What does this fold into?
Amino acid sequence: MPMPMPTFMTKYGAKAKTAKQQCTILLNMKAKFLGFILASAILGACDDNTGTLGILDDSDQITSSYTQIQMKTTTIQVDSIPAVNGTCYLGQVTDPETKTRIKADFLTQFHTMENYKLPAKSTMLKDSEGKVVADSIVVRLYFNDFYGDSTNVMKMNVYELDTLNVIEEGKKYYTNLDLSQFINAQRPEPIAQKVFTARDYTEDEGTLNGSNYYPNIQVKLPAEYGSFILNKYYEHPEYFKNSYEFIHHVCPGFYFNLTQGDGTMLYLDVSAMDIYFSYTGKSETTQKDTILAGVTRFAATGEVIQSNHMDVDGTKDLLQASLNSSHTYIKTPVGLYTQLELPINEIYRQHEQDSVSNVKLTLNRYNDFNTSHYALGIPQTLLLVRKKDMNSFFENRKTADNITSYTTSFNVNQYVYSNIARLISYCQQEKYAGMKETGLTEAEWERKNPDWNKAILIPVTTSNSQSSSSSSSARLLLDMKLNSMRLVGENQPISINVIYSKFSK
It folds into this structure.
């Protein structure tokens, strides 16, 4: 990933054992394991909570039982999801499998570095009126991946945003947000237009294949806009002390709106605005005053907002067809997800006094027989999260806690959640607490809280700032790449494996 440039550059220049260990030791000393199922039940029940750790006597006996319970799944459509993400999307694609059309565009703000500085105004190249003049200004949209044909021709308009109507940090924005409302009302026409392909034909093969090349789309803006920014610095240097001041008084950002083309989707992970200028200074070689070339960079990074807009057409028929099938869908970024109706009442029926030690969930994927040259991807990581927490999970930048949210990876054509027992217990306890607080019967409370036992499967990626090896604690982002998958379900209920355990005399 391209790193932000400096402010300007020139071309010259022996303890107690853990609760889990204690639990294992006690069980090894006092319990008689009766086969694999009993061992799984006991180990599944051991965790770092010492509140459940007791002393076993010789008369204690741990018994376990195992059952399979069917669970219903269905496909749901989420019309909008949180729009602020670590990746921006630009392009339009018609799904080769379902003919669903997905169009994506975005807006972005730019970040100014702390202690931002430019050369002294007296050294800068100026016009006849004494105003600083920029040589040129270029916005670069860097992408780490793309879907489709690299030679496919696309076209976009670029609009300047409005300092009087800034997309603000802390507010909730979703992918159905009309980004055009943030365009500068005084200058509603495009500031630039760009015809582009994913492959940059202005570069030679050696550059494109070089290890230092980072694919990007270059959009040239009017040089006058660069001059405007430079002069703002000398008139109001306080506007450059942080990103908030810069966005609200100088450059609120740009809206990149696709206007033509189908068959390519870019996955952008950073943008940069480079302003090129000339100034006088000492030559490093001759030590004489000469004209030097400089550039100052403003980057679109995690410090500022990058907001996506998704326009999807054609999912209604697909959703209706899935109701009469033996599968559910997960399709991004169109917002089709698989919903689980956790059979919590069935799990606890006739087991009210037992501990639910292990609940294993296995989701099998149907093979994709699509013959398109540009097949859609398979989600590599799935987040299982309560339906009621779906949006807040991403808005509040949460991580999977293995209580109300879990992640697992795609492996051998399936996804396996080895133990969601804590989620089952959490939902059951929430229901009883709600009944006690409201005085409602169980049936009344469930009718008033229809999503109490619902969970959603959503593709996610880890944040760029985190190592993939620490994905269990890294911030999770919505994966809105072009992914498509069918899971066994809908009219074919899937089975979950449940293990119970209890102490008996």
Confidence is low (pLDDT under 50) at residues 1-7, 10-56, 464-472.
